[in-house]
Amino acid sequence: METGAPEVTPPPCSGQPCAVAAKMAALGGGGTRWRRAWLPALQLLRRGSKAVTRHWKAMHLQRQKLMAVTEYLPPRPAVPPRCLPRPSAHGVQEDGQARVLRRQVQDTLSASRMVAVCHYNPMADEDVATFRHYLRKHGIHVKFVLNEIARPVVAQSKFRNLLPLFVSRNILLVSAEPRAREMLRVLRGVPQVILLGAVIDGTILSRRGVENFAQLPSLEVSQGQTVAALSLLPSQTSSLLQQGPARLTALLDEHIRRLRDAGAATEPPTGNH
Amino acid sequence: MWRWRLPGPLRPGGGQGGLGRITIPEKPKLKFMDKVPAVPKVRREPRQLRDIRGPSEVATDFTEGQYGILALGGGYLHWGHFEMIRLTIGRSIDPKNMFAVWRVPPPSKAVTRKSLGHRMGGGKGPIDRYVTAVKSGRLVVEVGGRCEFGEVEPFLARVAQKLPFPAVPVSRESLQEMRREEEEKRLNNQNPWTFERVVTSNMLGMRKYLSPYDLRLKGRYWGKFFLKHRV
């Protein structure tokens, strides 16, 4: 039979249940037996981790349900945006830099006799520098172009049939002299740059066409050859016409020579006076 | 190096939040932080994990710099983290044009650890190291000077990834944008049932399953984690 002292402490027990037991004892207070009250905030400390853990602590099911119910719901417009017409391409602001680059490309295209479009695969910077150096020795400039600038320029110039080539990473090899042979030689040594097509003196050439063009002799030689080919028939005609008189002349010369020889043979005795 | 994309339109006046002159302080690099405070603690202190829990009240806004690292979760930074931050940022900034500033104090909280392989009991372990507590929403470092966010973002992102809590590099504008978006979300939430409403009015007796801290944290924080997608 207990006295009215509420602070009867139970015998010391290990760890957390101490708190529970103490509270139970305090709750009991002034009466016969201490009632078995159950406070969840304390009872749950018996097992489980603290509030702040390194791992993601598992939530009570009711809490999970509450979190699921109180999730964010975004506003839904009456007409879904995909049913509305597409907004016009915003940002059509004229970019000064784009304008400058376009002007540069235009000038380059108009000022060069040979423009070769190549596909560029990434290479080391020093290799790029070497490549440019070798081409520069033959007077060929390497220009890196951005497709979004080059495409409108090319579409409006006389090179519009080259438009399908301006896809992916491109470089332009431009020069004032059509030095196809040297260009091909350098390109053969650089596998990362692939020739796609070229425009030489207003003629669009494919890769094969450029190779053929490179094997052609130079302009003077080909001019001479053309002249020779053209003048073949007239020269034949003239030689035919001259054949008769030439033969006659040759025969007469032979005759004169024979007569001279014969005269020389008979005359020498009389020539000794 | 040839750039295969056109850079975007230039934005005028990306300076120090509109100020004209930017002054680089005398010591632009981050100060060295001690491993152990000058007066090491004698009395071992309780763990007090509530210094990790919940949102931060201090150092939530920019002071000197323009860009920084924002903590999106709670955690402890120890000397190793400080050294990593100091050296990475020191390596990546240009001291003539940029500067960096700490927004967290040096480690002062003593953390104990019992030696490995021993059973429970035998008292509290000795002090292992000193740490700084960081709550979500706090800035860790600030970087400023004559630089753009694009220059600063890569190395700040690398540092942020190595921190013990989730962190992101932010600028003044991006932080403002983040806060504005949060506010907008809160206002245009179509769900009539919010955590805050349920907890404050104790609907369905939910407070039996929730902590009294949830009144303050409103379901956005769970332990040391910050739930960015909530409300």
Gist?
Chain A is an alpha+beta fold.
Features:
heterodimer; A: 273 residues; alpha+beta; 10 helices; rod-shaped; B: 231 residues; 18% strand
Describe this structure as you would to a colleague:
The complex is a heterodimer of chains A (273) and B (231). Chain A is α+β, with helices and mostly antiparallel strands. Chain A is 48% helix and 11% strand. The termini of chain A are far apart. Residues 1-31 of chain A have low confidence and may be disordered. Chain B has 231 residues and is of the alpha+beta class. Helices cover 23% and strands 18% of the residues of chain B. Chain B is built from 5 helices and 9 strands. In chain B, strands 3-6-1-7 form a 4-stranded antiparallel β-sheet. In chain B, strands 2-5-4 form a 3-stranded antiparallel β-sheet. In chain B, a hairpin with a 2-residue loop joins strand 8 (221-222) and strand 9 (225-226). In chain B, helix 1 (79-92) runs antiparallel to helix 2 (149-162). The longest helix of chain B has 16 residues, at 172-187. Chain B is flat, with a radius of gyration of 21 Å. The relative contact order of chain B is 0.19. Chain A binds chain B through residues 40, 50-54, 56-57, 59-60, 62-63, 66-67, 69-76, 93, 95, 97-98, 125, 144, 146, 148-149, 169, and chain B through 1-2, 4-7, 9, 49-50, 52-53, 74, 185, 188-191, 193-195, 198, 206, 208-211, 213, 219, 222-225, 229-231. Chain B: Belongs to the universal ribosomal protein uL16 family. Chain B: It comes from Catharus ustulatus. Chain B: Keywords: Mitochondrion, Ribonucleoprotein, Ribosomal protein, Transit peptide. Chain B: Its main location: mitochondrion. Chain B: This is Large ribosomal subunit protein uL16m. Chain A: Belongs to the universal ribosomal protein uL10 family.
Q: Quaternary state, please?
A: heterodimer
The greatest interface between two protein chains, and residues involved on each side, is: A-B, 32 and 35 residues
Q: Report strand % of chain B.
A: 15-25%
Strand percentage of chain A lies at 5-15%
- H/I helix tally of chain A: 10
The secondary-structure element order of chain B is EEHEEEEHEHHHEE
Low-confidence stretches of chain B: none
Pfam family, one (chain A): Ribosomal_L10
Protein name (chain A): Large ribosomal subunit protein uL10m
Keywords (chain A): Ribonucleoprotein, Ribosomal protein
Family (chain A): Belongs to the universal ribosomal protein uL10 family.
